[in-house]
Every structure is written in structure tokens, then in C-alpha cells.
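Field reference: sequence -> structure
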Amino acid sequence: MDDKAVREIRDNQQLTEHIAAPGPYFLKTKQGPDARGAIRLHCPPPDRPHR
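Structure field:
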């Protein structure tokens, strides 16, 4: 988003509703744990954020 969009967010009802109603993200593991037990997660692509 550009600065103008952020400043005028109250004037944009659709954007305000979209931000206020985030959906769940289902993250998948990219690989198993390393020696420390840390795992890497795969984030969903932007075109399918809620699947």
C-alpha cells in the first residue's frame, strides 16, 4: 500500500473490512527439525492466503 492509501483508509470501506476480518493461515512445514529443533514453515502464496 502506498502512503495515500494508508492515510485515507477510513474513506475506503472495502479495505477497512478486509483488514478487520483476517482469515486463518494454515502453514506447512518445509522440512523437519534441525539439530536445535527449529523448523521452517512454508507461507501460503498471496493469491491463496486462506487454504
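Note: Residues 13-20 form the longest helix (8 residues).
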